[in-house]
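Review this chain:
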Amino acid sequence: MESLKKERLRAQEAVAGSPISSMQRFLEERLGRRVTERGERWDEATAAQAESLREGVPWCWQELRAVETVLDEVAQEFDGEDPLVPAVRRTLDKTRQDLVALQPLLSFVDVEAELPEPDEERVAELRERLLRQDT
């Protein structure tokens, strides 16, 4: 955990010492204002990333859980056989592992993100999609 803090500080220093790029100028024009201090750029980038994680991680988890729920139902119809080909199963399992492993790391960027279960409406939507493909 300490090495992650050091990496974060090193990244802050790199951003603070970097020259303004043409991409930065473009972004400043899009924002309609100048970001003159390198520290401001770091703070804005960090805040944007934190917000993205705060919204994205729970959304991804809910989607994953909805897919897993529907796949479990399909597997039950096939006497417990996994309906996925091995490569897709590995991808789904890896995604689950990555999201679970990401959650404790979020505290380093002051992000609290729960891993909520999907609502029944989302699961029902996936079921309906699956049934439409069968017909």
